[in-house]
Automatic annotation (TrEMBL):
GO cellular component: cytosol
NCBIfam families: Rv1155_F420
Name this protein carries in UniProt: Pyridoxamine 5'-phosphate oxidase family protein
Gene3D superfamilies: Electron Transport, Fmn-binding Protein, Chain A
Single annotated GO MF: coenzyme F420 binding
Pfam families from the UniProt entry: PNPOx_N
Boundaries of every Pyridoxamine 5'-phosphate oxidase N-terminal domain copy: 16-132
Keyword Flavoprotein: no
Length: 137
């Protein structure tokens, strides 16, 4: 993975491999006063659907920030770092509570992180429609 933009729907092999490895990530959302809110999360990347997914509790601050942006969605970024390697995905986030979408996000999380998340009846998924990908490896 070289230092250059990627097509989020057609990443090169090293970029995709990096997103398949187990890494803690960060999600950056904007508060209503436009200051950044950065929190650690697990992220899955689905280039075919041009989506990144974050599972979380419906009452979390990050969900509140995305919802506060309105029906058009919120501009967000997810990032992961491993030494000198890093990768960022940017896009438009929406909160989804559809059981099938949440189940798919949980399945992908378990696949990437090697364990099922604990049960959570208040779980939702933040789906990020990807517009940009970049990184350096």
């Amino acid at each position: 993975m070289a230092a250059y933009p990627q097509d989020p729907g057609a990443p090169d092999a090293p970029y995709l491999t990096f997103w398949q490895e187990r890494h803690l990530c960060t999600l950056t959302t904007l508060r209503p006063d436009l200051t950044p809110h950065v929190v650690p999360v697990g992220v899955t990347y689905d280039p075919e659907a041009r989506l990144a997914r974050v599972i979380t509790n419906k009452s979390s601050a990050k969900v509140g920030h995305v919802r506060a942006a309105g029906p058009d969605g919120a501009r967000v970024a997810v990032c992961q770092v491993d030494g000198r390697r890093w990768a960022t995905l940017e896009g438009l986030a929406h909160v989804r509570n559809d059981p099938d979408r949440v189940a798919e996000a949980v399945r992908r999380y378990a696949e990437r992180y090697g364990r099922m998340p604990r049960p959570n009846p208040d779980r939702v998924v933040i789906e990020i429609e990807l517009t940009r990908a970049m990184g350096q490896g």
